[in-house]
Structures are given as structure tokens and as C-alpha cells.
């Protein structure tokens, strides 16, 4: 905590002055919120709440608060903070993606989640994260064929981060199984596994999901679960 105390001393949050290093403190607080220590997480959230109260026109502060709240599991408050970012920056690419995922996947509000993903793609049509999120939401909406098309676009986006490439392929496998195409599902899972082996980019939960999907793809009697846990990209 000493590091954060020092940062706080160096930031002027009084009167009409706008802190030059809001972004620095916000990023540091998000890192603190990722700690497994509940006290650290609470300190990060409290710090960011104070910051957003003092500088309510700073999108980076609200975004950091949203990410910290999401780390603590307070999805309702995280949603509110993400909305504040979009109030200030309506086309903030990462926040459109994060809020679309939070609403559609974490909270089951599929229609609004899709609307946000579509808004983002209207401005950033080749963004692999938004494409992946839209594909997952389409899949959860029962539109597996549309989901497959969108997820293929995400998987084939040149220069996408390895983690995004692996996750898009994982989600593609789910869509293929929904469409009774286990051969394609196994191919996408093999590609996702190869990317993960090269870069260690998937979480243990996602690797467990790949294992489950491989079992489903190898056994026609198994039923795929489109609501199985997945992760989004920031």
C-alpha cells in the first residue's frame, strides 16, 4: 500500500485543478484490484470512487472503477461505471466491448449487449474483440449460423492478439457443435490448443472448456452447452 500512498500524495484532486496523472493512478488501482487480498481490492475501489467524485469528467477514472468493481464481482456497480465511460466517450472501443459482454454474458441481457456490440462494430468493423463478443451473444441468442460467421471473421483478423485468436476458435467450436458439425469443431479446438501451447494465453477454466468440447465433439450423444463459462477480452 505504500506505493499507492505515495501516488496519492503526488496528485492534486482539489479545487478546479485537473490531475495530470489520473490515468497513472487509475491503472495502478486496477492492478491493486486484481490482488487476491480483499483489503487491497476495497482500497482500490474506494480510491477510484473518490477519484470519480472529484473529477467526474475523466473517462479513464470511470473505466478503472468499472474494471476494479468487476474484479470484486459487483457487476451492477461495474455496469454503472462502464455507462459513465460511454457518457463521456460514446465510442470507447474497449468499453463498448466490455459492457456488451457484461450485459449479455454475465447478466443475460442479450438484446442490449448485442446493440452495444453492433454500435462498436459500426465504428470499428474489424475489431476482433467486438467480433468475438458479438459472436458469443448471437450464439447465446440461438443464432448459431450467424455466430459462426462472425466468429470466423474474428478468428481470421490479421494481427489479433494470440489470446483473442484462441478464444475466438474456442467459441467457434461451440457454434459448430450447435450446428451439428463436430469435424469443424475439432479443427477449431486443435487450432485453439496450438495457439495456447505456444503462448499460454488461455485460463485454466478455458482449457477445461476445450476439454469438455472435445468430448462433446467426439461423442454425438453429448449435448453442447452454449452457456458454458467463457472470458472476454478487455
Describe the structure using short key phrases:
234 residues; mainly alpha; Serine Threonine Protein Phosphatase 5, Tetratricopeptide repeat; 72% helix
| Terminal CA distance | 25 Å
CATH homologous superfamily name of the domain at 1-89? Tetratricopeptide repeat domain
Work out the number of β strands. 0
Mean pLDDT: 87
Number of helices: 12
Which oligomerization state do the chains in this entry correspond to?
single chain
CATH topology of the domain at 1-89: Serine Threonine Protein Phosphatase 5, Tetratricopeptide repeat
Describe this structure in words.
The protein has 234 residues and is mainly α. The chain has a domain at 1-89: Tetratricopeptide repeat domain (Serine Threonine Protein Phosphatase 5, Tetratricopeptide repeat, Alpha Horseshoe), CATH 1.25.40.10. 72% of the residues lie in helices and 0% in strands. It is built from 12 helices and no strands. The longest helix is centred in the last third of the chain and has 18 residues, at 182-199. The two termini are 25 Å apart.
What are the SSEs and their pairings?
Layout: H1 2-9, H2 22-33, H3 38-54, H4 59-72, H5 75-88, H6 93-106, H7 110-123, H8 128-140, H9 144-155, H10 162-178, H11 182-199, H12 204-218
Summarize the structure.
The protein is mostly helical and 234 residues long. It is 72% helix and 0% strand. The protein has 12 helices and no strands.
